[in-house]
Amino acid sequence: MHLQDFKLERFLAQYEFSAPHLLCTSDCESVHLADLLAMEEGAEGRFKDLWLGYTESAGGPEVRREVAGMYSAVGPDEVIVTAGAEESIFLCMHAMLGPGDHVVVQSPAYQSLHEVARSIGCRVSHWTLCDEDGWRPDIEALKDHVTRETEAVVINTPHNPTGCHMTREEFQAVRDIAEDAGAWVFSDEVYRLLEYDPASRLPPMADIYEKGVSVGVMSKAFGLAGLRIGWTATRDAELRRRVAALKDYTTICCSAPSEFLTALALRHADEIVDRNLGIIRSNLALLDAFFERHADRFAWVRPTAGAIGFPRLLTGESVEAFAVRTVQESGVLLLPSTAYEYGDSHFRVGFARTDLPAALQAFEAYLDGRTA
Prior knowledge:
With 372 residues, this protein is of the alpha/beta class. It is 41% helix and 15% strand. The strands form four sheets. A seven-stranded mixed beta sheet has the order 2-8-7-6-5-3-4, with helices on both faces. Strands 10-14-13 form a three-stranded antiparallel beta sheet. Helix 4 runs parallel beside helix 11. The protein is globular. It starts with 6 loop residues before the first helix and ends with a helix.
């Protein structure tokens, strides 16, 4: 196994903790520990009394029960708690796939969704989204990619980085196509709960397909990236067994304080998510107005769910060069599409933090100064 450098993470590592204005964040606004503990009477005392020993490898009963509560057909014993979604991706890919297997991956994508499979020796086909189509998934193109040799279809909805969200019909079509081929559906659902229209919320893939794998995390919709807690939900017992066996070689178990705080947050999920959706809606209005003012520079396909979007730079210059120059000259950080191995003309914007207005103001001042 040989993994290529993670382009997105390497790019962010250069600037993320030094740039004053982060306009490309993928998570929601976080909270202070004291604020989270204050959500539940007695939580602070229980937290202070927490035993700092090992936890169960699959996750403690309390946190697995709270995670399972977000599913209708998945029970606590069908959840494996991991160190973020990244560990879930890594373990599941190794548990599901082998050298020579064929995998279809929705593209653009978070790099590990295709790179881990490639490093195993899989044949990876990219099911590519285009902004000319409003980032809508082409179901007929997926049918062309999936064959009887396909071992897994990898999807992400709401989508990173475009903000596109599958319709119920599209989501079910993915399941049906995979089922006909006998393939897994690995569904990255880390932005689930951030649908702007609650009626558009989809069921987890693990609920509607026996070979469905749903991955969630506390980092995105909940804004609790510092907990480093994610999970895998699947009803397939053999896959869970293989994932659990592989986890013995990675983290063995997760942090006891993080599991406690995750369970606490999930009991107050509505309050946390509602606050974050309020921030998103307010910031989206600012972005809509910004991109309307700068329609000669950028093409904006408005996201339908999630915390990020993927506008196109229309000036013809390299978006990576534009992003580097922007952060160096203005302190505003954008994420170029080269980090997704998706050409050199788009960039990611994030709009689920309260500091977006200041970051957007700094970006606009920089743009206006360049053309003055």
